[in-house]
Amino acid sequence: MKLSFVSLLILSSLSSLAQEYYIQVQNAQSGNPIPYAHISSSDKLVTITDHFGRARIPRSSDVSYKISCIGYRLLTFSDQLLSVDEMTIIKLNPDEKILDAVTITPTTLEDMIKEVYDNIPNAYITNPHLLKGELIEQYMDTLGHANINSCAKIQVQKESYTRQHKKGEVKIDSLSRIYDVISPLYTQIHAGAHIPHRFDFVMKREEFINPLTFNKYNYEYLGEFELNESLVDVIGFEPNPKSLIEGQFAGKIYLDMKEKVFLKGEYHYTQTGIFSNPESRWVDRRQFITEYKPSENGWYFAYTWDEAVRESDNFLLSQYFKTKSIDYDTAVNWGYEEKIHFHDIVEKEPADTLIVNNEMQLSDSIPQVAFIRTSTGYYRFLSKIEAGYGIKFYSLNPASIHANGVVDYQGNSLLIDESTSMQTIDIGLYYFVRYQLKQNVFFQFGYAENFWNDTQKRNWDLGMLYRLSLKSLRPSNLNVKVSYTQFVSQFRFDKRAGLEPYFQQRHHGILGGLGYEIRLNGLFKLGLEYNYFHYINTNEKFYLKEKYGLFNLFSKKHDYDSDLVGWEVNGESQSLPVNIFDNHSFDLTLIIALDR
């Protein structure tokens, strides 16, 4: 008897389904699913569990598997325990390396963390240093196939880790990349492009060790643990659901209280963090391990491991950096052709290995550093420019002003008898552009003009701005500005006989500004600034504006000495009106600035 074609398809489908085991990995204590656990066989990654702890394993005979996940004990099992007919539940026990016995500590957990936090700038951040090490980056799929491997030997010169944008400089000694791409996804990836981010991301003093954000987390002392032949204190932490804003991470902190060192951190984004942190939205799970070691002059960043998983396309990125040596007493001054700023490295550059019809063309290093810098020069130049557009709030001296007098106009006497008034606040538009001269020093030009009415104000300023980074959850900074400026302020009386009477004051002086800026994303910032103007000299004049020509498109001014007109301010006679504008103003601006 011959089977129909449809029957063959059905049998083929059933046969293929029978070639896989369907499992779910759970926490042995809570029963909760364990997402993104690695399942391997013969030291090769087979698959990774999804967000609900589920995975499919190819069916075979007498094969041993290992399940590993940070925070859980390694489990080895045989495929003989798996069922083809139904989903098999596999339980993982939490990591029991940490001793159950709790050691009494002399201070609270928060005090322990704060003590280390306070020592970070003294022991590490404020010391300029040179890190020499090796960075390895891998892009893999859930079959364990490494589509891209890259390895870079680099030197990193750092002065500070106070903010992520202080990236320092890096010199590449060698950079190699090997491609074996079997998925179209990876042809779009430039291996090595993440080098700029590795140091500054893990070196930031994350919120789980920041005393200002302790309320976002629940802490638990887990006891002492032997690490690197010494006993260290271990503190577990997780987001506090009772906090108005929950923390973004969960994990463990290993503290060496003798050295006052944040010795090791094992942590990952929680579900809350995945959606609240813009750096992790593209990934379903991201986890980190960072290690620090004491040295003669403090402690230093020794090792980092970073893994990101994206479930939608089985994307797995693993990165490692290990410090080989450190030099604190460095006066390194690399030449222009030797150094590559973090933002210039390989980012937006074609890979040095090209895939053509699945045939690999390999290049083991990048000898032409200057070529890379030329291609990224435009980005480097643009990253130094910031432009702002916003609203300026002028502070005025409220007053009612009356002008009374006689002036000569084309041989005739013209009677001036006009009044106007000013409010307390006026609003205008403000524009500025600034260029970065040094790390925290900018050259800035700004221009502002109010919305035209009976009282007009316009000014420009040209000067220097100094930026001070602040310790906050979202990147922000404090600005101090000193500029030379010119203010032109005037008010207009009612038109009469085809003429518009004006009184004008022109001020020259020094403008001092104090501002606050907060970064919204990688492109935009929001700024608020207070300005104070100190007058050096002032010129006043009274003039009549006469319009002529077709549709009155042209105009000319007839200037007069201001003392030819008598002035009354708020009903009192004065030789000249008071300053039209006060010495104060406020700016609210949206700033275009590439994240450095």
From TrEMBL:
<feature type="signal peptide">
    <location>
        <begin position="1"/>
        <end position="18"/>
    </location>
</feature>
<protein>
    <recommendedName>
        <fullName>CarboxypepD_reg-like domain-containing protein</fullName>
    </recommendedName>
</protein>
<keyword id="KW-0732">Signal</keyword>
